[in-house]
Amino acid sequence: MRTVEHFIGGNAAGGGSRQHDIWDPNIGEVQAKVSLGSRDELQKAVDAALAAQPAWAATNPQKRARIMFNYKALVESNMDELAALLSSEHGKVIADARGDVQRGLDVIEFACGIPHALKGEFTQGAGPGIDVYSMRQPLGIVAGITPFNFPAMIPMWMFGVAIACGNAFILKPSERDPSVPVRLAELMKESGLPDGILQVVHGDKQMVDAILDHDDIKAVSFVGSSDIAHYVYQRGTENGKRVQAMGGAKNHGIVMPDADLDQVVNDLAGAAFGSAGERCMALPVVVPVGTETADRLREKLIPAIDALRVGVSTDGEAHYGPVVTAEHKAKVEQWIQTGVDEGAELVLDGRGFKLQGHEKGFFIGPSLFDHVKPGMESYREEIFGPVLQMVRADNFEEALSLASNHQYGNGVAIFTRNGHAAREFASRVEVGMVGINVPIPVPVAYHSFGGWKRSAFGDTNQHGMEGVKFWTKVKTVTQRWPDGGGDGSNAFVIPTMG
Ligand code: NAD
Protein backbone atom coordinates (compact mmCIF):
# COMPACT_ATOMS: atom_id res chain seq x y z
CA MET A 1 0.00 0.00 0.00
CA ARG A 2 1.18 3.53 -0.87
CA THR A 3 2.60 5.57 2.02
CA VAL A 4 2.55 9.35 1.90
CA GLU A 5 5.81 10.61 3.36
CA HIS A 6 6.99 13.96 4.66
CA PHE A 7 8.69 16.32 2.20
CA ILE A 8 11.81 17.64 3.93
CA GLY A 9 14.76 19.46 2.41
CA GLY A 10 13.44 18.86 -1.10
CA ASN A 11 13.04 15.08 -0.72
CA ALA A 12 10.52 12.51 0.43
CA ALA A 13 11.39 11.53 4.00
CA GLY A 14 10.09 8.69 6.13
CA GLY A 15 9.76 9.06 9.84
CA GLY A 16 7.30 8.68 12.65
CA SER A 17 6.35 5.43 14.32
CA ARG A 18 2.62 5.91 13.76
CA GLN A 19 0.52 5.96 10.59
CA HIS A 20 -2.94 7.24 9.68
CA ASP A 21 -5.37 5.71 7.15
CA ILE A 22 -6.26 7.65 4.03
CA TRP A 23 -9.67 6.51 2.83
CA ASP A 24 -11.23 6.42 -0.59
CA PRO A 25 -14.62 7.81 0.45
CA ASN A 26 -16.26 6.63 -2.80
CA ILE A 27 -15.77 2.98 -1.90
CA GLY A 28 -15.23 3.15 1.85
CA GLU A 29 -11.81 1.50 1.77
CA VAL A 30 -8.35 2.53 2.92
CA GLN A 31 -6.32 3.50 -0.16
CA ALA A 32 -3.04 4.66 1.43
CA LYS A 33 -1.29 5.46 4.71
CA VAL A 34 0.36 8.64 5.87
CA SER A 35 3.29 8.72 8.30
CA LEU A 36 2.54 10.73 11.41
CA GLY A 37 5.64 12.59 12.50
CA SER A 38 6.66 14.21 15.73
CA ARG A 39 9.35 16.54 17.09
CA ASP A 40 12.17 14.66 15.32
CA GLU A 41 10.73 15.12 11.82
CA LEU A 42 9.86 18.71 12.59
CA GLN A 43 13.41 19.39 13.76
CA LYS A 44 14.77 18.04 10.46
CA ALA A 45 12.49 20.40 8.55
CA VAL A 46 13.46 23.34 10.77
CA ASP A 47 17.17 22.58 10.25
CA ALA A 48 16.69 22.54 6.47
CA ALA A 49 14.71 25.78 6.66
CA LEU A 50 17.33 27.47 8.83
CA ALA A 51 19.99 26.59 6.27
CA ALA A 52 17.98 27.84 3.28
CA GLN A 53 16.01 30.84 4.45
CA PRO A 54 18.69 33.58 4.69
CA ALA A 55 19.66 33.19 1.03
CA TRP A 56 16.01 33.08 0.01
CA ALA A 57 15.27 36.27 1.96
CA ALA A 58 18.25 37.90 0.25
CA THR A 59 17.00 36.91 -3.21
CA ASN A 60 15.44 39.99 -4.76
CA PRO A 61 11.63 39.99 -4.82
CA GLN A 62 11.46 39.97 -8.61
CA LYS A 63 13.38 36.70 -8.75
CA ARG A 64 11.16 35.23 -6.06
CA ALA A 65 8.14 36.32 -8.10
CA ARG A 66 9.51 34.61 -11.20
CA ILE A 67 9.38 31.29 -9.36
CA MET A 68 5.74 32.01 -8.62
CA PHE A 69 5.13 32.59 -12.35
CA ASN A 70 6.80 29.23 -13.12
CA TYR A 71 4.72 27.59 -10.44
CA LYS A 72 1.46 28.95 -11.80
CA ALA A 73 2.22 27.47 -15.22
CA LEU A 74 3.33 24.15 -13.76
CA VAL A 75 0.28 23.72 -11.53
CA GLU A 76 -1.96 24.58 -14.48
CA SER A 77 -0.31 21.92 -16.61
CA ASN A 78 -0.79 19.38 -13.78
CA MET A 79 -4.37 20.45 -13.05
CA ASP A 80 -6.03 17.21 -14.16
CA GLU A 81 -3.75 15.03 -12.06
CA LEU A 82 -4.09 17.27 -9.00
CA ALA A 83 -7.88 17.46 -9.26
CA ALA A 84 -8.19 13.67 -9.61
CA LEU A 85 -5.91 13.04 -6.63
CA LEU A 86 -7.72 15.62 -4.51
CA SER A 87 -11.12 14.23 -5.40
CA SER A 88 -10.05 10.64 -4.64
CA GLU A 89 -9.09 11.47 -1.04
CA HIS A 90 -11.58 14.23 -0.23
CA GLY A 91 -14.63 13.02 -2.19
CA LYS A 92 -15.55 16.35 -3.81
CA VAL A 93 -16.50 16.09 -7.50
CA ILE A 94 -13.75 16.71 -10.06
CA ALA A 95 -15.06 20.10 -11.25
CA ASP A 96 -15.13 21.28 -7.63
CA ALA A 97 -11.65 19.85 -7.02
CA ARG A 98 -10.37 21.91 -9.97
CA GLY A 99 -11.97 24.96 -8.34
CA ASP A 100 -10.10 24.12 -5.11
CA VAL A 101 -6.78 24.17 -6.98
CA GLN A 102 -7.72 27.24 -9.02
CA ARG A 103 -8.69 29.36 -5.98
CA GLY A 104 -5.27 28.56 -4.54
CA LEU A 105 -3.61 29.46 -7.82
CA ASP A 106 -5.34 32.83 -7.67
CA VAL A 107 -3.23 33.52 -4.57
CA ILE A 108 -0.10 32.44 -6.45
CA GLU A 109 -1.04 35.02 -9.12
CA PHE A 110 -1.29 37.63 -6.37
CA ALA A 111 2.12 36.53 -5.10
CA CYS A 112 3.56 37.13 -8.59
CA GLY A 113 3.09 40.83 -7.78
CA ILE A 114 5.08 40.63 -4.54
CA PRO A 115 7.72 43.23 -5.55
CA HIS A 116 4.95 45.81 -5.67
CA ALA A 117 3.25 44.59 -2.48
CA LEU A 118 6.51 44.72 -0.50
CA LYS A 119 7.36 48.31 -1.35
CA GLY A 120 7.74 50.30 1.84
CA GLU A 121 6.78 53.87 2.69
CA PHE A 122 9.05 56.87 2.41
CA THR A 123 8.90 60.42 3.73
CA GLN A 124 11.45 62.87 2.51
CA GLY A 125 12.20 65.71 4.92
CA ALA A 126 10.30 64.39 7.96
CA GLY A 127 12.50 66.81 9.97
CA PRO A 128 15.41 69.05 9.06
CA GLY A 129 17.63 66.87 6.86
CA ILE A 130 15.76 63.78 8.02
CA ASP A 131 14.12 61.12 5.89
CA VAL A 132 12.01 58.23 7.18
CA TYR A 133 11.42 54.98 5.36
CA SER A 134 9.95 51.61 6.22
CA MET A 135 10.54 48.14 4.88
CA ARG A 136 8.76 44.82 5.22
CA GLN A 137 11.07 41.95 6.11
CA PRO A 138 10.27 38.22 6.29
CA LEU A 139 9.76 36.63 9.71
CA GLY A 140 12.10 33.69 9.03
CA ILE A 141 10.63 30.22 9.48
CA VAL A 142 6.84 30.08 9.57
CA ALA A 143 4.23 27.32 9.53
CA GLY A 144 0.71 26.55 8.33
CA ILE A 145 -1.72 23.96 9.71
CA THR A 146 -4.58 23.21 7.35
CA PRO A 147 -7.96 21.39 7.31
CA PHE A 148 -9.15 18.53 5.09
CA ASN A 149 -11.80 20.43 3.19
CA PHE A 150 -9.60 22.52 0.86
CA PRO A 151 -6.33 20.57 0.60
CA ALA A 152 -5.06 22.73 -2.29
CA MET A 153 -6.55 26.19 -1.82
CA ILE A 154 -5.84 26.73 1.86
CA PRO A 155 -2.17 25.65 1.79
CA MET A 156 -1.68 27.97 -1.21
CA TRP A 157 -3.45 30.85 0.59
CA MET A 158 -0.68 30.58 3.12
CA PHE A 159 2.53 29.45 1.43
CA GLY A 160 1.98 31.53 -1.74
CA VAL A 161 2.27 34.77 0.18
CA ALA A 162 4.62 33.59 2.94
CA ILE A 163 7.24 32.28 0.52
CA ALA A 164 7.01 35.23 -1.86
CA CYS A 165 7.69 37.47 1.17
CA GLY A 166 11.00 35.63 1.77
CA ASN A 167 10.06 33.15 4.51
CA ALA A 168 10.68 29.41 4.72
CA PHE A 169 7.33 27.68 5.15
CA ILE A 170 6.53 24.38 6.88
CA LEU A 171 3.11 22.96 6.04
CA LYS A 172 1.26 20.51 8.30
CA PRO A 173 -1.74 19.48 6.16
CA SER A 174 -4.74 17.45 7.26
CA GLU A 175 -3.84 13.80 7.75
CA ARG A 176 -7.11 12.88 6.02
CA ASP A 177 -6.10 14.04 2.50
CA PRO A 178 -2.37 14.80 2.54
CA SER A 179 -1.33 13.76 -1.01
CA VAL A 180 -2.16 16.97 -2.86
CA PRO A 181 -0.24 19.18 -0.39
CA VAL A 182 2.86 17.02 -0.98
CA ARG A 183 2.40 17.22 -4.77
CA LEU A 184 2.09 21.00 -4.48
CA ALA A 185 5.43 21.14 -2.66
CA GLU A 186 7.10 18.87 -5.23
CA LEU A 187 5.88 21.14 -8.03
CA MET A 188 7.32 24.15 -6.20
CA LYS A 189 10.71 22.45 -6.25
CA GLU A 190 10.30 21.83 -10.00
CA SER A 191 9.51 25.54 -10.39
CA GLY A 192 12.95 26.41 -9.06
CA LEU A 193 12.28 27.00 -5.36
CA PRO A 194 15.38 26.16 -3.29
CA ASP A 195 15.12 23.07 -1.07
CA GLY A 196 14.04 23.82 2.48
CA ILE A 197 11.80 26.78 1.60
CA LEU A 198 8.57 24.79 1.26
CA GLN A 199 8.36 21.60 3.30
CA VAL A 200 5.56 19.31 4.39
CA VAL A 201 5.42 17.43 7.68
CA HIS A 202 2.49 15.15 8.47
CA GLY A 203 0.95 14.48 11.82
CA ASP A 204 -1.83 15.06 14.28
CA LYS A 205 -1.95 16.88 17.63
CA GLN A 206 1.62 15.78 18.46
CA MET A 207 3.01 17.51 15.39
CA VAL A 208 0.81 20.56 15.90
CA ASP A 209 2.09 20.92 19.46
CA ALA A 210 5.69 20.51 18.27
CA ILE A 211 5.14 23.37 15.82
CA LEU A 212 3.49 25.58 18.43
CA ASP A 213 6.34 25.01 20.89
CA HIS A 214 9.27 25.36 18.49
CA ASP A 215 11.31 28.50 19.19
CA ASP A 216 12.55 28.85 15.62
CA ILE A 217 9.04 29.04 14.15
CA LYS A 218 7.97 32.66 14.29
CA ALA A 219 4.41 32.58 12.99
CA VAL A 220 1.62 30.04 12.59
CA SER A 221 -1.42 30.24 10.38
CA PHE A 222 -4.18 27.76 11.21
CA VAL A 223 -7.46 26.89 9.51
CA GLY A 224 -9.79 24.26 10.99
CA SER A 225 -12.52 23.88 13.58
CA SER A 226 -13.04 26.57 16.22
CA ASP A 227 -12.05 24.76 19.41
CA ILE A 228 -8.75 23.72 17.87
CA ALA A 229 -8.28 27.18 16.32
CA HIS A 230 -8.68 28.70 19.78
CA TYR A 231 -6.25 26.21 21.29
CA VAL A 232 -3.67 26.89 18.55
CA TYR A 233 -4.09 30.63 19.02
CA GLN A 234 -3.62 30.41 22.80
CA ARG A 235 -0.66 28.04 22.82
CA GLY A 236 1.06 29.75 19.89
CA THR A 237 0.73 33.27 21.25
CA GLU A 238 1.75 32.12 24.75
CA ASN A 239 4.96 30.97 23.10
CA GLY A 240 5.45 34.42 21.61
CA LYS A 241 4.42 33.62 18.05
CA ARG A 242 2.32 35.58 15.66
CA VAL A 243 -0.84 33.47 15.13
CA GLN A 244 -3.89 33.75 12.91
CA ALA A 245 -6.39 30.94 13.47
CA MET A 246 -9.52 30.57 11.36
CA GLY A 247 -12.33 28.43 12.78
CA GLY A 248 -15.74 27.00 11.98
CA ALA A 249 -18.79 28.61 10.47
CA LYS A 250 -22.56 28.60 10.23
CA ASN A 251 -23.35 30.97 7.40
CA HIS A 252 -26.86 32.37 6.99
CA GLY A 253 -28.63 33.24 3.74
CA ILE A 254 -31.26 35.93 4.35
CA VAL A 255 -34.08 35.87 1.78
CA MET A 256 -36.07 39.10 1.58
CA PRO A 257 -39.67 39.05 0.28
CA ASP A 258 -38.62 40.82 -2.93
CA ALA A 259 -35.85 38.32 -3.81
CA ASP A 260 -35.90 36.38 -7.08
CA LEU A 261 -36.79 33.01 -5.55
CA ASP A 262 -35.85 30.90 -8.55
CA GLN A 263 -32.38 32.37 -8.46
CA VAL A 264 -32.23 31.92 -4.66
CA VAL A 265 -33.19 28.23 -4.90
CA ASN A 266 -30.54 27.63 -7.52
CA ASP A 267 -27.91 29.44 -5.44
CA LEU A 268 -28.93 27.76 -2.19
CA ALA A 269 -28.85 24.25 -3.62
CA GLY A 270 -25.23 24.70 -4.71
CA ALA A 271 -24.11 26.63 -1.65
CA ALA A 272 -25.74 24.31 0.89
CA PHE A 273 -25.05 20.94 -0.74
CA GLY A 274 -21.99 21.50 -2.97
CA SER A 275 -18.98 19.57 -1.68
CA ALA A 276 -21.48 17.71 0.55
CA GLY A 277 -21.70 20.86 2.69
CA GLU A 278 -18.04 20.52 3.73
CA ARG A 279 -17.15 24.15 3.06
CA CYS A 280 -16.56 26.83 5.65
CA MET A 281 -18.34 29.20 3.25
CA ALA A 282 -21.29 26.86 2.65
CA LEU A 283 -24.74 28.29 3.28
CA PRO A 284 -26.35 25.76 5.66
CA VAL A 285 -28.93 28.15 7.18
CA VAL A 286 -31.61 29.92 5.17
CA VAL A 287 -33.63 32.69 6.79
CA PRO A 288 -36.70 33.67 4.77
CA VAL A 289 -38.28 36.93 5.93
CA GLY A 290 -42.05 36.64 6.42
CA THR A 291 -44.28 33.56 6.36
CA GLU A 292 -45.26 34.00 2.73
CA THR A 293 -41.62 34.10 1.60
CA ALA A 294 -40.88 31.02 3.72
CA ASP A 295 -43.80 29.03 2.33
CA ARG A 296 -43.03 29.94 -1.29
CA LEU A 297 -39.34 29.18 -0.80
CA ARG A 298 -40.06 25.82 0.81
CA GLU A 299 -42.34 24.85 -2.06
CA LYS A 300 -39.60 25.57 -4.60
CA LEU A 301 -36.76 24.13 -2.54
CA ILE A 302 -38.19 20.64 -2.04
CA PRO A 303 -38.22 19.59 -5.73
CA ALA A 304 -34.87 21.30 -6.33
CA ILE A 305 -33.25 19.35 -3.48
CA ASP A 306 -34.98 16.14 -4.50
CA ALA A 307 -33.46 16.52 -7.96
CA LEU A 308 -29.88 16.66 -6.67
CA ARG A 309 -27.68 13.87 -7.92
CA VAL A 310 -25.38 12.32 -5.34
CA GLY A 311 -22.64 10.27 -6.98
CA VAL A 312 -19.05 9.15 -6.93
CA SER A 313 -16.66 12.05 -7.16
CA THR A 314 -15.64 11.09 -10.70
CA ASP A 315 -19.26 11.20 -11.93
CA GLY A 316 -19.36 14.30 -14.13
CA GLU A 317 -23.12 14.60 -13.66
CA ALA A 318 -23.08 14.42 -9.84
CA HIS A 319 -23.80 17.57 -7.83
CA TYR A 320 -21.84 16.27 -4.90
CA GLY A 321 -19.95 13.19 -3.73
CA PRO A 322 -19.36 11.39 -0.43
CA VAL A 323 -18.24 13.02 2.82
CA VAL A 324 -14.64 12.52 3.84
CA THR A 325 -14.78 9.61 6.34
CA ALA A 326 -17.21 7.15 7.91
CA GLU A 327 -16.70 8.97 11.22
CA HIS A 328 -17.74 12.27 9.66
CA LYS A 329 -20.77 10.63 8.05
CA ALA A 330 -21.87 9.28 11.44
CA LYS A 331 -21.42 12.71 13.01
CA VAL A 332 -23.56 14.45 10.39
CA GLU A 333 -26.29 11.81 10.71
CA GLN A 334 -26.20 12.25 14.48
CA TRP A 335 -26.76 15.99 14.03
CA ILE A 336 -29.82 15.25 11.90
CA GLN A 337 -31.17 13.11 14.74
CA THR A 338 -30.45 15.90 17.23
CA GLY A 339 -32.46 18.31 15.05
CA VAL A 340 -35.39 15.88 15.06
CA ASP A 341 -35.13 15.36 18.84
CA GLU A 342 -35.10 19.12 19.38
CA GLY A 343 -38.39 19.49 17.52
CA ALA A 344 -37.34 20.88 14.14
CA GLU A 345 -39.34 19.56 11.17
CA LEU A 346 -37.26 17.19 9.04
CA VAL A 347 -38.78 17.79 5.61
CA LEU A 348 -36.23 15.73 3.63
CA ASP A 349 -34.12 13.05 5.30
CA GLY A 350 -30.82 12.15 3.64
CA ARG A 351 -29.88 9.45 6.12
CA GLY A 352 -29.63 5.88 4.99
CA PHE A 353 -28.79 6.90 1.42
CA LYS A 354 -27.05 4.10 -0.50
CA LEU A 355 -25.43 4.57 -3.88
CA GLN A 356 -25.93 1.47 -5.97
CA GLY A 357 -22.63 -0.34 -6.50
CA HIS A 358 -20.96 1.84 -3.83
CA GLU A 359 -22.83 0.75 -0.74
CA LYS A 360 -19.76 1.15 1.48
CA GLY A 361 -19.06 4.72 0.28
CA PHE A 362 -19.56 7.60 2.73
CA PHE A 363 -22.61 9.08 1.00
CA ILE A 364 -25.35 11.13 2.65
CA GLY A 365 -28.44 12.29 0.79
CA PRO A 366 -29.54 15.92 1.07
CA SER A 367 -31.61 16.91 4.13
CA LEU A 368 -33.89 19.88 4.69
CA PHE A 369 -35.16 21.10 8.05
CA ASP A 370 -37.89 23.71 8.53
CA HIS A 371 -38.93 25.52 11.72
CA VAL A 372 -35.44 25.41 13.22
CA LYS A 373 -35.21 27.70 16.26
CA PRO A 374 -32.25 29.75 17.51
CA GLY A 375 -32.16 27.92 20.85
CA MET A 376 -31.50 24.53 19.25
CA GLU A 377 -28.06 22.97 19.55
CA SER A 378 -28.28 21.75 15.94
CA TYR A 379 -28.60 25.44 14.94
CA ARG A 380 -25.85 26.75 17.21
CA GLU A 381 -23.24 24.18 16.14
CA GLU A 382 -21.63 23.52 12.77
CA ILE A 383 -22.92 20.34 11.05
CA PHE A 384 -20.57 20.43 8.03
CA GLY A 385 -22.68 18.12 5.91
CA PRO A 386 -25.41 18.21 3.24
CA VAL A 387 -28.06 19.62 5.57
CA LEU A 388 -30.01 22.87 5.02
CA GLN A 389 -31.82 24.38 8.00
CA MET A 390 -34.62 26.90 7.55
CA VAL A 391 -35.09 29.43 10.34
CA ARG A 392 -38.11 31.65 9.77
CA ALA A 393 -37.84 35.36 10.65
CA ASP A 394 -40.73 37.83 10.88
CA ASN A 395 -38.84 40.82 9.59
CA PHE A 396 -35.50 42.23 8.43
CA GLU A 397 -34.34 43.15 11.96
CA GLU A 398 -34.91 39.64 13.25
CA ALA A 399 -33.03 38.13 10.29
CA LEU A 400 -30.15 40.54 10.80
CA SER A 401 -29.93 39.75 14.50
CA LEU A 402 -29.94 35.98 13.89
CA ALA A 403 -26.79 36.25 11.76
CA SER A 404 -25.22 38.85 14.05
CA ASN A 405 -25.85 36.96 17.28
CA HIS A 406 -24.66 33.56 16.10
CA GLN A 407 -21.40 32.41 17.71
CA TYR A 408 -19.83 32.08 14.25
CA GLY A 409 -19.35 35.03 11.91
CA ASN A 410 -17.57 33.71 8.85
CA GLY A 411 -19.84 34.51 5.90
CA VAL A 412 -23.42 35.63 5.27
CA ALA A 413 -25.54 36.41 2.22
CA ILE A 414 -28.61 38.53 1.61
CA PHE A 415 -30.89 37.99 -1.38
CA THR A 416 -32.94 41.04 -2.31
CA ARG A 417 -33.71 43.51 -5.09
CA ASN A 418 -33.71 46.38 -2.59
CA GLY A 419 -30.39 48.23 -2.60
CA HIS A 420 -31.16 50.10 0.60
CA ALA A 421 -31.88 46.89 2.54
CA ALA A 422 -28.72 45.29 1.16
CA ARG A 423 -26.57 48.28 2.05
CA GLU A 424 -28.04 48.49 5.55
CA PHE A 425 -27.48 44.77 6.05
CA ALA A 426 -23.88 44.85 4.85
CA SER A 427 -22.97 47.73 7.12
CA ARG A 428 -24.67 46.41 10.28
CA VAL A 429 -24.20 42.63 10.22
CA GLU A 430 -21.59 41.20 12.63
CA VAL A 431 -19.98 38.86 10.11
CA GLY A 432 -16.64 39.12 8.29
CA MET A 433 -17.61 38.30 4.68
CA VAL A 434 -20.89 39.41 3.13
CA GLY A 435 -22.54 38.41 -0.13
CA ILE A 436 -25.23 40.55 -1.75
CA ASN A 437 -27.08 38.17 -4.07
CA VAL A 438 -23.86 36.14 -3.99
CA PRO A 439 -24.24 32.87 -2.06
CA ILE A 440 -20.56 32.07 -1.42
CA PRO A 441 -18.79 35.40 -0.91
CA VAL A 442 -15.20 34.10 -0.76
CA PRO A 443 -13.15 37.22 -1.48
CA VAL A 444 -10.86 37.21 -4.52
CA ALA A 445 -7.17 36.61 -3.82
CA TYR A 446 -6.10 40.26 -3.87
CA HIS A 447 -8.68 41.04 -1.17
CA SER A 448 -8.51 39.00 2.00
CA PHE A 449 -10.36 36.17 3.69
CA GLY A 450 -11.41 36.10 7.32
CA GLY A 451 -14.42 35.76 9.57
CA TRP A 452 -15.40 37.32 12.88
CA LYS A 453 -16.29 36.03 16.36
CA ARG A 454 -15.53 32.30 16.84
CA SER A 455 -14.71 31.97 13.14
CA ALA A 456 -11.30 33.60 13.56
CA PHE A 457 -8.81 34.26 16.35
CA GLY A 458 -6.07 36.83 15.78
CA ASP A 459 -6.29 40.02 13.82
CA THR A 460 -5.10 39.55 10.27
CA ASN A 461 -6.84 37.79 7.42
CA GLN A 462 -5.57 35.33 4.84
CA HIS A 463 -3.96 36.50 1.57
CA GLY A 464 -4.14 39.92 -0.12
CA MET A 465 -2.33 42.73 1.67
CA GLU A 466 -3.48 41.32 5.03
CA GLY A 467 -1.45 38.20 4.21
CA VAL A 468 1.59 40.29 3.32
CA LYS A 469 1.26 42.02 6.70
CA PHE A 470 0.95 38.74 8.56
CA TRP A 471 4.03 37.16 6.97
CA THR A 472 6.32 40.19 7.36
CA LYS A 473 7.51 42.54 10.05
CA VAL A 474 7.94 46.26 9.53
CA LYS A 475 11.21 48.02 10.12
CA THR A 476 11.26 51.81 10.08
CA VAL A 477 14.46 53.77 9.50
CA THR A 478 14.94 57.41 10.42
CA GLN A 479 18.08 58.78 8.78
CA ARG A 480 20.08 61.95 8.40
CA TRP A 481 23.33 62.61 6.64
CA PRO A 482 24.84 65.70 8.32
CA ASP A 483 27.22 67.75 6.21
CA GLY A 484 29.83 67.79 9.02
CA GLY A 485 29.17 71.39 10.08
CA GLY A 486 27.06 70.46 13.13
CA ASP A 487 23.31 71.05 13.02
CA GLY A 488 22.75 71.92 16.69
CA SER A 489 20.64 68.81 17.37
CA ASN A 490 20.17 67.87 21.02
CA ALA A 491 19.12 64.32 22.00
CA PHE A 492 18.63 65.32 25.67
CA VAL A 493 15.21 66.47 24.53
CA ILE A 494 13.07 63.94 22.70
CA PRO A 495 13.14 64.98 19.02
CA THR A 496 9.85 66.63 18.05
CA MET A 497 10.64 67.51 14.42
CA GLY A 498 9.22 70.92 15.33
P1 NAD B 1 -9.86 20.12 12.29
O1 NAD B 1 -9.94 21.22 13.27
O2 NAD B 1 -10.26 18.75 12.71
O3 NAD B 1 -8.35 19.97 11.74
C1 NAD B 1 -7.62 21.07 11.29
C2 NAD B 1 -6.14 20.81 11.54
O4 NAD B 1 -5.91 20.69 12.95
C3 NAD B 1 -5.63 19.54 10.89
O5 NAD B 1 -4.37 19.79 10.31
C4 NAD B 1 -5.55 18.56 12.05
O6 NAD B 1 -4.52 17.61 11.89
C5 NAD B 1 -5.25 19.46 13.23
N1 NAD B 1 -5.79 18.92 14.48
C6 NAD B 1 -6.83 18.05 14.62
N2 NAD B 1 -7.04 17.80 15.92
C7 NAD B 1 -6.15 18.51 16.63
C8 NAD B 1 -5.90 18.68 18.03
N3 NAD B 1 -6.61 18.06 18.94
N4 NAD B 1 -4.89 19.51 18.38
C9 NAD B 1 -4.16 20.15 17.47
N5 NAD B 1 -4.37 20.04 16.12
C10 NAD B 1 -5.35 19.23 15.71
O7 NAD B 1 -10.69 20.60 11.00
P2 NAD B 1 -11.10 19.76 9.74
O8 NAD B 1 -12.18 18.79 10.13
O9 NAD B 1 -9.92 19.25 9.04
O10 NAD B 1 -11.74 20.91 8.83
C11 NAD B 1 -13.07 21.33 8.94
C12 NAD B 1 -13.20 22.54 9.83
O11 NAD B 1 -12.41 23.61 9.32
C13 NAD B 1 -14.61 23.08 9.86
O12 NAD B 1 -14.89 23.49 11.17
C14 NAD B 1 -14.57 24.26 8.92
O13 NAD B 1 -15.54 25.26 9.14
C15 NAD B 1 -13.20 24.78 9.19
N6 NAD B 1 -12.72 25.62 8.11
C16 NAD B 1 -12.63 26.95 8.34
C17 NAD B 1 -12.20 27.78 7.33
C18 NAD B 1 -12.08 29.26 7.56
O14 NAD B 1 -11.41 29.89 6.79
N7 NAD B 1 -12.68 29.80 8.59
C19 NAD B 1 -11.87 27.25 6.09
C20 NAD B 1 -11.96 25.87 5.90
C21 NAD B 1 -12.38 25.06 6.94
TrEMBL record:
Keyword Oxidoreductase listed: yes
Boundaries of every Aldehyde dehydrogenase domain copy: 18-477
GO BP term (any one): thymine catabolic process
Keywords from the named record: NAD, Oxidoreductase
Cited Pfam families: Aldedh
Top EC class of this enzyme: oxidoreductase
EC number(s) from the headed UniProt entry: 1.2.1.27
Family matches, as InterPro entries: Ald_DH/histidinol_DH, Ald_DH_C, Ald_DH_N, Aldehyde_DH_dom, MeMal-semiAld_DH
Molecular functions (GO terms): methylmalonate-semialdehyde dehydrogenase (acylating, NAD) activity
PANTHER family xref list: MALONATE-SEMIALDEHYDE DEHYDROGENASE
Name of the featured protein: methylmalonate-semialdehyde dehydrogenase (CoA acylating)
Lineage per the UniProt record: Bacteria, Pseudomonadati, Pseudomonadota, Alphaproteobacteria, Sphingomonadales
